[in-house]
Amino acid sequence: MTPSVTHETTSSPKLLDQVRARIRVKHYSIRTETQYVHWIRRFILFHGKRHPREMGAPEVEAFLTALAVRGGVAAATQNQALSALLFLYREVLEIQLPWLDSVTRAKPSRRLPVVLTPAEVRAVLGRMEGVYGLMGRLLYGTGMRLMECVRLRVKDVDFGRNEILIRDGKGGKDRVTMLPAALALPLTEHLQRRRLIHEDDLAAGKAGVWLPDALAKKYPHAETEWAWQFVFCSGSHSIDPRSGEVRRHHIDEKLLQRAMKRAVAAARLAKLATPHTLRHSFATHLLESGQDIRTVQELLGHSDVSTTMIYTHVLNKGGRGVTSPLDRL
Fold first, then answer.
1. How far apart are CA 261 and CA 21, in angstroms?
2. pLDDT value at position 132?
3. CB half-sphere exposure, 24, CA atoms < 13 A
4. 26: which strand partners?
5. Which single residue of 34, 130, 278, 293 has CA 20 to 30 Å from 217?
6. pTM: predicted TM-score of the whole model, two decimal places
7. Which domains does the chain have, with CATH numbers?
């Protein structure tokens, strides 16, 4: 008979500390670390605090199936939980799980994206002021994702070429998008104000920013350099949860989301628009203006053109880009 495992051997600190350490070795983001630890903890609690070494594919299948059937989670959420558990077994416990054929998959959503008309975009952006207004205009004017805008660094804005280099986007890819001419002056003025904040931080000895991967070791002084600073910084310093250092991080994306929500309400729109809606609108309006879909694909950073094709179904030309026979009468 297998001896029962005590709470101390299955509680989160030891095992989850191993998970955190392995995630950091592989240079995963703090968000991925938080989510993976969350799902691994839920998996352990779901099975009565049994140690994952005592469990395997059947327990993983039962947990993921329960998420889909009882929890009703989205397919992306279930896939995130699966990725966390696969990471636990493969990278931390070094156990290869057999193919999980018995998992009941959450049904993927096939909803068309919410898209604003140009008039609706003007109405919303016209009600977003200050730094949030600038960020909203960047999202619509460049097609950036929310976090790509939030994490933008000074060195990646090229005023000479009217370009913005988006580093480490979805899938770990870099890409280039345009810097709208209408934003060149507002962004320049914002960076002038941002530089004053950086100079104050330098004087206070708190000008360091988080650097990706091993750049902090390779370039020990880069973290305090102007080029590496976040364009949109937080209003206060915070403690880095990994290093414990006091730093000025980028702005909290929730602040932009709330500003967008207030603007949508003030514009009295019936659509459930979010900052990501501005990216959808960017793509749709480019296609409406006659831009080549491959160009739009590159600007959005899609790996497959089929992903970009979804915007052809929301063009303002009827159900599938055709004219209704009623309009021909």
1. 37
2. 97
3. 9
4. none
5. 34
6. 0.78
7. 7-92 (1.10.150.130), 118-313 (1.10.443.10)
